[in-house]
């Protein structure tokens, strides 16, 4: 048999919904703040060259960097916990839920912030199936060192707790971001996944950070569902912000607040119950 070079066809030009400036257009919801403000936050956080924390030249390979846990990337830095919030959160067991909006990509950083505030306390992470389009479990584990479970029935993975375990274990529940679909399911009493059933049965504090599409904030659906949820004494909803829409290119109200702004709402709920 004659051997020769394997010839592969050259790829055709990629076509897609690009704008004239080369940015991708798609059905995405805004992140908090305008586009210029978002770039400014990145530069203030990481520097103009996007540099990250590195080992000093004299440090041996594998040495730990102050502020990072063993086995974590040296590029991860953690904020100093404000004592007034950290004291309220001590001893709580957190369930953090990510849903299918682009802002879920910020969830790993939020988990690290929560971990710093609680001193590494118990935290479980659940991801909806739709959220995996924007954040993989592999990425989340690489950044946080924690494994997440997917919120769906019928899985054989031993990591996945059932709805009774979730409802009885969690003493505080954070949903970041919370899509309009997730909010509507919760408001209407649906129980179609383990996490949703647990949320319907628990009395633990629940704090939601809505992430809404253009027009969602003004819609009757959001107003009705929000009003229904606000009648439940253990639920608080963080106010959405104006943000840049990747779909329309305009600013609209619907971006979730920064993750850290959920925590004062948690402490207020705990204080009302005499737990803070």
Automatic annotation (TrEMBL):
GO molecular function per UniProt: FMN binding; phosphopantothenoylcysteine decarboxylase activity
Enumerate the spans annotated as Flavoprotein domain.
Answer: 93-229
SUPFAM superfamilies in the cross-refs: Homo-oligomeric flavin-containing Cys decarboxylases, HFCD (SSF52507)
Kindly give the InterPro entries that the UniProt entry links to this protein: Flavin_trans-like, Flavoprotein
**UniProt region (Disordered), positions on chain:** 45-83
Gene Ontology BP annotations: coenzyme A biosynthetic process
Q: Where is the composition biased (Low complexity)?
A: 60-71
Superkingdom is: Bacteria
Its cellular-component GO annotations read: phosphopantothenoylcysteine decarboxylase complex
Q: What is this protein called?
A: Flavoprotein domain-containing protein
Q: Please tell me the species this chain comes from.
A: Amycolatopsis panacis
